[in-house]
């Protein structure tokens, strides 16, 4: 009878992981990027542009004396904010369903 569970220590986990990637790594990563590649790239691009916009907003108003610059920013760019949230929501739901 074979044993499904095997007691292992940390070095066994590491060596098994490296041996798995050495033997089947090319096939594993090929299938992983075929299935998830386009969605990962889309999420990375969206994240880059969102962080770019918010970091520009943060650092552009460091020396300003306007106390409500954040409120003005949200009021002036409400369409962009709603569009980005909807896009993230749609990409996230598509990613979860697959």
Note the main attributes of this structure.
mainly alpha
Q: What is the compact description of this entry?
A:
This protein is an all-alpha fold. Helix content is 81%, strand content 0%.
SSE string, helix = H, strand = E? HHH
What Rg is obtained from the alpha carbons, in whole angstroms? Answer: 23 Å
Structural class: mainly alpha
Largest sheet: none
What is the mean predicted local confidence, pLDDT?
84
Tally of alpha and pi helices: 3
Write the layout of secondary structure elements.
Blueprint: H1 10-60, H2 69-76, H3 78-97
Write a structural description.
- The protein is mainly alpha-helical.
- It is built from 3 helices and no strands.
- It is elongated.
- The mean pLDDT is about 85.
């Amino acid at each position: 009878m074979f044993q499904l569970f095997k007691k292992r220590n940390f070095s066994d986990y590491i060596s098994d992981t490296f041996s798995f990637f050495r033997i089947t790594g090319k096939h594993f990563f090929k299938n992983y990027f075929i299935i998830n590649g386009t969605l990962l790239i889309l999420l990375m691009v969206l994240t880059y542009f969102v962080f770019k916009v918010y970091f520009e907003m943060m650092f552009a108003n460091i020396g300003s004396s306007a106390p409500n610059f954040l409120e003005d920013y949200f009021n002036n760019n409400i369409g962009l904010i709603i569009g980005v949230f909807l896009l993230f929501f749609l990409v996230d739901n598509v990613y979860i369903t697959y």
